[in-house]
Amino acid sequence: MKFKAPLFLLAAVLGAQFLNAQQPAMSATTGLAAGNSFTLFVTFEDSMPKVDTIACYFSLVGNAKPGQEDFAKAFNCVGPPKKIDDTHYSAAVDIPRGTAEGDYRLSRVDVQLDSVNHIYDSQHLPSLSPVAVHNPEHLNFSPIKKLETKP
User: Fold this and answer.
1) R_g (Cα) of the chain, nearest Å
2) Which domain holds residue 120?
């Protein structure tokens, strides 16, 4: 009888671990902070055996919040793409510190093959949910009171 409580507790802990293991991976669209990174996965309809570069551009939807007007309002892919197979590639995306808070929409993807660049703009891209960026920082720049020169 005295072993029922510890066994129940052990079963509950193991069950909780199993349930947590079954949770889907966090999506980039659930919110990232300035200074974080995520991976953009690109799937081509047809075989693209040798992609040289993939450049992506995310832009802020709307205006920056007060106190963040001078913050960056865009971010992009960094580094070379990683080939998964002939139709699947991935690209790292960094959200720099100093990026304004808000939702960012993928506005453009550039793909380069054999020194030729093709641009996929927003109307030629499949839909992708906006990436939510959180940044609690705010800056207030003081007006310049006076300027002068001296010999």
Assistant:
1) 23
2) 26-134
- At CA 107, angle to CA 97 and CA 46, rounded to 5? 120
How does pLDDT run across 21-79, given as a tens digit for each residue?
Answer: 333 334 455 679 999 999 999 999 999 988 999 999 999 999 999 999 999 999 999 88
Query: Are the CB atoms for 83 and 89 separated by under 8 Å?
Result: yes
pTM for the structure as a whole: 0.75
Which domain CATH number covers 82? 2.60.40
CA–CA distance, 14 with 10 (Å, rounded to integer): 6
Number of domains in the chain: 1
Bridge partners for 113 per DSSP = 116
Q: What one-character-per-residue DSSP string does 59-120 give?
A: EESSPPPTT-TTSB-EEEEEEEEEESSSSEEEEEEE--TTBPSEEEEEEEEEEEETTEEEEE
The DSSP H or E segment spanning 10 is helix 4-21
Look at residue 123 in the predicted model and tell me its pLDDT. 87
